[in-house]
Amino acid sequence: MSFYTAENFHHIGSVGFLLNKARNQIVADMDAALAELNVKAQYIGILMSLMREPTATPAGLSRQLGVDSGLMTRMLDRLDALGLLDRSRDTMDRRVVNLQLTAAGRAASRRIAELAPNVLNARLRNFSPAEHDELRRLLYKLLLD
Question: Does the record bear Electron transport in its keywords (predicted)?
């Protein structure tokens, strides 16, 4: 089924536009909530992934988070400069870089875990539990190829 055609397409009402606008609002809200940590929303996935998986690689994080390797490198450089993660060469394969949170990175991740739910809950305040579940279901469906 085709939902859009050249005749009826209006970008402002399209699913892509609305998803992007919703994402931008959540990112802005999250950036404001994380200002105390000097961390941006774009780093949450990396920090939380490393909190749950103490040793990871840039390639593994790129795949998991759906981020290209160039952007991943720039984000890791920033987190490294902030003192939130350490990089080390794998002892078995020197081509592999292992990532680990520093003590400051673990503290920031714990704080993010406290702040992020408040931001998301505020955005979802007008949703019923069933609507929340349906939104998640539909987003997962949209992600399927």
Answer: no
Give the side-chain half-sphere CA count within 13 A for 113: 13
- Residue written as tokens 């774009």? 42
For residue range 14-31, list pLDDT tens digits in order: 999 999 999 999 999 999
pLDDT at 55 over 90: no
- Spell out where the chain has E strands: 85-89, 97-101
List the one residue out of 77, 82, 48 whose CA is nearest residue 65.
48
Q: Which residues pair with 89 in a beta bridge?
A: 97
Taking the C-alpha atoms of residue 39 and residue 64, their distance in angstroms, rounded to an integer, is 20
Q: Which residues contact 92 (CB under 8 A, 6 or more apart)?
A: none
